[in-house]
Write a structure and sequence with these properties.
With about 240 residues, the protein is of the alpha/beta class. The chain is about 25% helix and about 25% strand.
Length: about 240
Amino acid sequence: MPLILAAAHPSHAPVRYHALIPSAGTGTRAGTAGPKQYESVAGRMLVQHTLEAFTRVKRIASVLVVVAPGDERMPAGDGYRVVACGGATRAASVANGLAELRAQGAKEDDWVLVHDAARCLVTPQQIDRLIDACLTDDVGGLLAQPLADTLKQEEAGRVAQTLSREKKWLAQTPQMFRLALLQKALREAADGVTDEASAIEAIGLKPLLVPGSAQNFKVTWPEDFALAEAVLRSRTT
């Protein structure tokens, strides 16, 4: 059994939940003129839909948005704070955001839910589902979807082999871990980790997989904007 690094929370200091939204990326694959999180989707900036979902979850004590230094495009709003401490990689932005949370008074064993700014279709219900599943877990976990498609491995633009999809999941966000545990994992992991769960795995722990939703996809490619817009508009009709 691996050693769990988070200490028990003192009875007089109830555990809190914080959302951390790294939003310092440029989104080059999206084909937009600027960072994709500022593109208009269903009448609002993409990132505003993301933030609305988190600010509607009553259990979340604070929402912190991490943008790149000098970025003044993130709109001000109620229920969240913007800090320009983004790093060169996602892992660096998250690490800087965790340090900022600590500076704001977050405790070592508070939970942090890290979420992609570009997953603008996440719902408060999905966030609550993750919290409910993880709040008594020793490690923490992430929203994810079982892989439904046939998986191919490529070599020089051709199929090298077909991989089994059994027991394979597509990682989503939020990903929820104790603050001190996640800080330690990111310090020890290589800077190339693409999500928080990978860093947690690298120190020998096994995050919990919590079923998410196919609609909780990350807006990545140009055609994703139209799909996200259609889903968002369908929710208001």
